[in-house]
Amino acid sequence: MKIAERYIVLASHNQRMNARLFRLVSSLDVASQTEDKGAFFGSILGTLNHIIFGNHFLLTRVRALINRPSPLDAIPPQWDFQPDKQYGASVAELATICADIDQAVCEFVSTLDERDLGKETDDAIPLWALLDQLFQHQTHHRGQATTLLSQCGVDYPSFADVIGTLQGESAPF
């Protein structure tokens, strides 16, 4: 496997896990979605908004670095560090935003080659590191969201992983 192909797998897995998370969160009533549970971003909705912020913040830097037309162009830029920024007032709004971002990322990474991944920002951060951070950030905060789901009595089985994505498995829920 070429290194660039790794990002196709990670983008696909990320898209799959985000869709799964939003399906489960959507099964909750609005009060449960918005209740401040003492998490870093308060509620499940706050945590989902932060995931979207991280996407915008990191993908703004990716777009500037790659400096060519791409599927990421549809994502509004986010240069300022505003981790509490609200991108949507409802889970349905955020699910649509997240699905659009995930699709753009899947399309974008399929255009990359090894040279692209080695390109660096002015402060010497390579594209591969920005992409790794993008996926790790989402994984980290999905973990926080699953804890909040557990507190609401929602089971979030953890067996769906990158290996399952490689094998073409679909989540059974």
UniProtKB/TrEMBL annotation:
Binding site for a divalent metal cation: 50, 137, 141
SUPFAM superfamilies linked to this entry: DinB/YfiT-like putative metalloenzymes
InterPro entries: DinB (IPR007837), DinB/YfiT-like (IPR034660)
GO MF term list: metal ion binding
Superkingdom, taxonomy of origin: Bacteria
Keywords: Metal-binding
Keyword hit for Nucleotidyltransferase: no
Similarity field: Belongs to the DinB family.
Protein name according to UniProt: Damage-inducible protein DinB
Phylogenetic lineage: Bacteria, Bacillati, Cyanobacteriota, Cyanophyceae, Leptolyngbyales
